[in-house]
Amino acid sequence: MTDKPGTALVTGASSGIGATYADRLARRGHDLILVARDKTRLETLAERLRAEAGVTVEVLDADLTAPADLRRVERRLRDDAAITLLVNNAGMAVTGPLAGADMDGLETMIQLNLVAATRLAGAAVDGFLPRGRGVIVNIASVLALAPEMFNAVYSATKAYLLSFTQTLDTELRDSGVRVQAVLPGMTRTEIWERSGIDAATLPPEMIMGVDDMVDAALKGLDMGEVVTIPALPDIADWEAFVTARRKMGPNLSRSHPAARYGIGGAG
């Protein structure tokens, strides 16, 4: 961060994680562009942050599953040189197994969690690279590491965001553009109600308050973390996971099947 941190564009900013990011970033001196469908809630938040933090706050009401709205936000990310930070937070959850699922609902979730996040990150990269600075924060989930704890499609969207961020980190290295994937566990937000789950039935020791989650994520960003898992007590566990994955690397693609398959030509 510099003395003039620039403008942060936050998606899904009308409530929960997005609204909390907006609050914290405003207090760090960022001007804001708040993106969500609920213009009334955005205006209420914007008015409060202008008064409390003394920053400029613009409301950009958009449905990121609608192509025209998504392209409008993309253009802003590419063309507005004041934007230095994208918080790719907008997302939704659909509960239940794939069998018998509402496929249209799943497609909408994929559109929001994957397609919109990817296109916005791409637009941000296009805007940031010529200026040699910028930060992209992708809000994923611990389900990227423990997919069996929820359903197949939602967990897969969060695994995508983790992989996407890790690869972007490699692509953008030494460019001045930084990326971070945030992997919250259960967080006390409206997503539970919207997905049809009663949060009161969840183990309270597993649910983190949204203020603590965002504060930890921003601390991880300050520390230079590419992957931040706010609830993880010992970072050595994550480092061991990464080391184990890299150890498999040389054997993931070879000229013959592994000997355990007993196929001719195995080494």
Walkthrough of the structure:
- The chain is an alpha/beta fold.
- The protein has two domains: 226 residues, Rossmann fold, CATH 3.40.50; 32 residues, no CATH class.
- Helix content is 44%, strand content 13%.
- The chain contains eight helices and seven strands.
- Strands 3-2-1-4-5-6-7 form a seven-stranded parallel sheet, sandwiched between helices.
- Helix 1 links the parallel strand 1 and strand 2.
- Helix 1 runs parallel beside helix 2, helix 1 crosses helix 7 and helix 3 packs parallel to helix 4.
- It is globular and about 70 Å long.
- The termini are far apart.
Brief rundown of the structure:
With 267 residues, the protein is an alpha/beta fold. The protein folds into 2 domains: 226 residues, NAD(P)-binding Rossmann-like Domain (Rossmann fold); 32 residues, no CATH class. Strands 3-2-1-4-5-6-7 form a 7-stranded parallel sheet, with helices on both faces.
Question: What is the topology?
Answer:
Layout: E1 7-11, H1 16-27, E2 31-36, H2 39-53, E3 57-61, H3 67-79, E4 83-88, H4 103-128, E5 134-139, H5 152-171, E6 177-182, H6 191-194, H7 210-222, E7 227-228, H8 235-248
Parallel strand pairs: 1-2, 1-4, 2-3, 4-5, 5-6, 6-7
Helix pairs in contact: 1-2, 1-7, 3-4, 4-5
